[in-house]
Amino acid sequence: MGKEYKNILQFAIERERDAYDFYTKAKEHVKTSNARTFFDQLAKQELAHKQKLESMSISKELLIDLSSLDIASYTLDEQFADDMQFHMEYQQILLLAIKREEMSVRLYKNMRMVVKEPDKQQLFGILMQEEQSHREELQIEYDAYVLTED
Q: Domain coordinates of the chain in residue numbers?
């Protein structure tokens, strides 16, 4: 059972690394210092999530049903994500970021439901709430940007 947990945990760690990379790239493609600061803060928070996951111990008692976690539903078409390098406007970057955060919320919600250890359930719950907070911040930024765009 530990190996299966390690696989799903490794997936979550990779998702956090991808999120860090995404926000790091995003801050290089935006025009305002406020947007760069916003994406830099999100990148740092995703890096902290990765570090929290890396610090988790894998116990033999962990019971997880990997079939209940449809891994493919937590990834985006990489071609679409790579388009940010050349074509995406700020509004599109925000929309993509919102989608990514929604997937992270679902991932941690489902991970929390399938693990049996209270400390891991608690950590996944905290990560789920933090990703939801990121999503809400992005939505606020998106709404403000769209409403002020000429």
A: 2-148
Fold of domain 2-148:
Ferritin (1.20.1260)
Tokens 């990703």 label which residue? 131
User: What tens digit of pLDDT does each residue of 126-141 get?
Assistant: 999 999 999 999 999 9
Q: Rounded CA gap, 93 and 84, in Å? A: 7
Q: How many Å apart are CA 16 and CA 76, to the nearest integer?
A: 14
Structure confidence by residue, pLDDT tens digits, 80-122: 455 555 467 888 899 999 999 999 999 899 888 877 788 888 9
DSSP H helical ranges for the chain: 2-28, 33-54, 78-82, 90-114, 118-148
Q: Is the CB of residue 76 less than 8 Å from the CB of residue 100? A: yes
